Amino acid sequence: MDYTLNCKGKLIDLHTPQVMGILNVTPDSFYAESRKQSEQEIAVRTRQIIQEGGTIIDVGGCSTRPGAACASESEEMERLRFALSVVRREVPDAVVSVDTFRPDVARMAVEEFGVDIINDVSEGADGKMFRMVARLGVPYILMSVQQTIREMLLHFAREVDELRSYGQKDIILDPGFGFGKTLEQNYEVMSRMDQLGMLQLPLLVGVSRKSMIYRVLECSSSEALNGTTVLNTVALQKGAAILRVHDVREAVECVRIITATWSQHG
Fold this sequence. Notes:
The chain is an alpha/beta fold and 266 residues long. The chain has nine helices and ten strands. α3 (103-113) links the parallel β5 (95-99) and β6. It is globular, with a radius of gyration of 17 Å.
């Protein structure tokens, strides 16, 4: 879509879909191979995301997988401070997102490390995050736990209005695959995701190696790369502007192939 994100003066043109690489600095993220905790592991993963064509690095310090123990706010901050210092050292000009549902963690990340985007899985909770990101002046990823496109549209419309009332500018919508939805509901939302386009905001899709893939294929998350690529392709066809992934090179190739087909239609 024709939308440009302003990340503190760094402009990201979403006319061509972008790839966000996941950097988990947690001991318990659902995909074990994504967990990076040592300085060397974080540095290698940071460089890998950029070298493979990712344009955004999404750093998470608190696992949101079902059944995971929630890290304390101080523990999440400690993990993020350690990781973000490495990320900024390795690729100082990269666009960095932080995956958090805590307003004070968001503030710390932006004020101490110049983080460019806040990626929130809480739907804004009690409004504190909405007010915080508007004050910080960074793009905000708003996720939905709603189970149907209809309910998603209604909730997104209200939440976007609230964010706008606080002065928030750039908003990215995330349908929240894997959050609050059954297997069937995840696929129903994917099949009708293009309807979210009526909100005229960019969509982020994160399905990488999730249970909605490996349960259908009867395999493990480590065997779900091919299924992830298939679903990323569907997501792009349904309007995704950002793909949040573990496997950056494969997602970048997916975008290149899809955009090549678009170019043939003028």
